[in-house]
Amino acid sequence: MSAAASVAISVATLTLNPAIDQSVAVPGFAAGSVNRVLWEQSDPGGKGVNVASFLVDLGSRSALSVAATGLLGRDNAGEFEHLFKSKGICDEFVRIPGKTRVNVKILDETHHNITDLNFPGPAVTPADLVKLERRIDALLTDHDCFVLSGSAPAGVAVDYYAGLIRRLKAAGKRVLLDSSGELLRFGVQAAPWAIKPNLAELEELVGTPLPDQHAVVAAARTLLAQGIGCVVVSQGRDGALFVTEQTCLLAMPPDVAVKSTVGAGDALVAGFVAATLRGLPLADCARLATACALGALTQLGPRLPAAGIIESFMEHVVVHNLTG
Question: For residue 93, how many other CB atoms are within 10 A of its CB?
């Protein structure tokens, strides 16, 4: 990882529906009962915000050009602004009236359970989206790769990502899409460079259960046939699949003590994008992506451990070549 860190990376991330991720520790959490919070932590996030943050964590700032754009509630933008300033992320968010949503993650270390409470985002107007399109157009000059991540608030059409992918591709940009549901279904029709569904999202996308690895790989290959360059399927403890037209790899992670799942998938995306833009072979892309996801799992909130720990995780990721 360090040997390639001097290669400049130019990435913009899009987060239509950012969130403040509030993690609360509640030992023995029980629904319908009085529960006591042991500790709490609040982090500005949302999938694209997390990806931008992780990209900066992966290398020296001199080797990175990272911008974050999207729609941000004006009333509680301060936490995000502090994050962007502290990490050197270019803040290209469009401010909209109201508050950015809060997502609550209840961590029950007694039963090893995590409960998510995800709030809807504020509704947006056509005028807000016009402003956002202008911001994105302004980013085309200096950014070669765009990461479109997460859900969309009310007021955003289900084919929004699809239209944007076509615009970005026409401008010669690489586009990675990490979404779900209708946004993903329409988005893949525009054939982005890469997508990163988890297993449940892939099953919903192809409309059928995928009971084994062979079925998952076959589903990924049907998407490649539609013009997508790479399908990355995150499978939790069962590893992650990295499928291109020529290659199919399974990256298996070592066991780690999980502190929080916040941002693990976004760390996987960041590692994959960073390694790909550095020109690393797909196997090394898989190692770095998986190591980043592991790193996020060992932290509270969306953050990565020190570079040395990520490198240690990379050494213990086992990559199997399933091509054939």
Answer: 25
Contact by Cβ (8 Å): 292, 270:
yes
Contacts of 239 (CB under 8 A, 6+ apart): 250, 251, 252, 253, 290
Residue pair 15/48 in contact by the 8 Å Cβ criterion: yes
pLDDT digits (tens, 9 = 90+) for 287-321: 999 999 999 999 877 889 888 899 999 999 999 99
Concerning whether 266 is annotated as a catalytic residue, the answer is yes
Total domains in the chain come to 1
C-alpha–C-alpha distance, residues 9 and 276, integer Å: 10
* Structure-token pair, residue 204: 């919903």
Q: What's the full length of the chain, in residues?
A: 324
Structural domain range at position 116: 2-29+38-321
With bands split at pLDDT 50, 70 and 90, how would you rate the model's confidence at 203?
very high
- Tell me the CB-side half-sphere exposure of residue 91, using CA atoms within 13 A: 15
**How far is it, in rounded angstroms, from Cα 282 to Cα 192?**
18
Side chain identity, residue 218: A
CB contact set of 62 (below 8 Å; sequence gap of 6+): none
* Residue whose structure tokens are 């001097």: 6
CATH code, 7: 3.40.1190.20
Helix (H) or strand (E) run with residue 183 in it:
helix 181-188
The catalytic residue among 43, 128, 178, 266 is 266
Give the closest residue to 194 by CA, choosing from 286, 131, 105, 299. Answer: 286
20-64 pLDDT, tens digit each: 989 899 999 999 999 999 999 899 999 999 999 999 988 654 466
Element (H, E) at 189: none
Average pLDDT, the chain: 92
Q: Tokens representing 80? A: 């995000």
Q: Encoding tokens for residue 205?
A: 């996308």
pLDDT tens digits, residue range 129-143?
A: 999 999 999 999 999
What are the pLDDT digits (tens) for 216-241? Answer: 999 999 999 999 999 999 998 899 99
Cα–Cα distance list, 189 to 70, 114, 244, 245, 318 (Å) = 22, 34, 17, 17, 32
